[in-house]
Design goal:
287 residues; TIM Barrel; 8-stranded parallel β-barrel; 12 helices; globular
Length: 287
């Protein structure tokens, strides 16, 4: 009987290993998509999704609308892990026109709603809100932004929210357009609730080396990705992300990778994206 079991195990071992490998998740994968696409997002393999602050948890939403959103979030098959576009474009957070008390009042209300929605991370991209006048001194802007960041971080701590400062391409803003420059600000804010998002799409657009991820390894809490030419889902054009994924591995990054590439895709494309990205992650993490 024992010999038969050993023989059976011998023949089944490759199948068992293949099944485990196919289902092993080295890094959680999420998708930024409208909550209305929750079912297809889940069916594609994603366990996490991201939405916008404006649509889900903004202080500008009526209490009735926010309660409706909470019900949608509660019923969703995927977990709403993060919201992006933290600030509306007209609310300046850098440069000469910052109204600090208005900003701090806004974030207090925002983080209160984020806590109710059980959102873990809010991504601070907001390119228009942080765009500087062309002649504004960049060092002055950083000093001012760091001081504001410290106050925002203190409010985030009160509600147990993590802020993830995002590097943006220069097409979207003229302030903090690299992981390196965003990491410098995060270090100066020096607060556990004010951390870094390494957006690989923006890094590739700006020609930034994967080494910047390694250099900021102690700050990373979030990562986003899309194909560089047209911001498509990974797999549509066939981009190779492995140099950046190797940097994440070297940095011992344990957080999720979120695909942020628009939402006008078929169920088949979304499922292929999940498989394509999972395969590249496996290639990196198993070698």
């Amino acid at each position: 009987m024992r010999l038969k079991n050993l023989i059976l195990l011998f023949f089944l071992a490759p199948v068992i290993f293949s099944f485990q490998s196919a289902n092993q998740t080295f890094l959680p994968l999420g998708l930024v998509a409208p909550i209305e696409k929750d079912s297809v997002t889940s069916a594609s393999g994603f366990k996490l999704f991201g939405e916008s602050v404006g649509r889900m948890i903004s202080p500008s939403l009526s209490e009735e609308k926010f309660k409706q959103n909470l019900e949608l979030i509660k019923k969703a098959k995927c977990k709403l892990y993060m919201c992006n576009v933290m600030f509306p474009g007209k609310m300046k957070i850098a440069g000469p026109d910052v109204q600090e008390q208005a900003v701090l009042g806004y974030v207090d209300s925002l983080f209160f709603r984020a806590q109710q929605a059980k959102v873990s991370v809010i991504v601070l991209g907001s390119g228009a809100a942080r765009r500087l006048p062309d002649d504004y001194d960049i060092d002055k802007a950083k000093k001012e932004f760091v001081l504001l960041g410290k106050k925002i971080a203190a409010t985030a701590k009160k509600y147990n929210i993590k802020i993830a400062l995002e590097n943006l391409q220069s097409k979207e803003t003229n302030f903090l357009t690299s992981v390196k420059s965003a990491a410098e600000v995060v270090r100066r804010v020096n607060h556990p609730n004010f951390r870094l998002n390494a957006d690989i799409f923006h890094m590739k657009r700006e020609g930034e080396s994967p080494q910047s991820i390694v250099d900021a390894k102690d700050l990373l809490v979030h990562c986003e990705i899309a194909e560089v030419a047209e911001r498509t889902l990974p797999g549509i054009k066939g981009d190779d992300f492995r140099p950046y994924l190797r940097a994440l591995k070297t940095a011992n990054y344990k957080g999720p990778i979120f695909v942020e590439a628009g939402s006008n895709y078929s169920a088949a494309q979304m499922a292929f994206c999940f498989q394509y990205l999972t395969k590249q992650i496996e290639d990196v993490y198993t070698h």
